[in-house]
Amino acid sequence: MKFLYCEHCHYAFEDEQCPACGNKKVREPLSNDACFLCEKQMMWAEMLAEALKNNGIPVVLKKRMGMGMALKVGPMMERCKVYVPFSCLQKAREIVDEMFSETNGSDVT
Ligand SMILES: [Zn+2]
Question: Residues within 5 Å of ion ligand 1 by Cβ?
Answer without folding.
Answer: 6, 8-9, 18, 20-21, 23
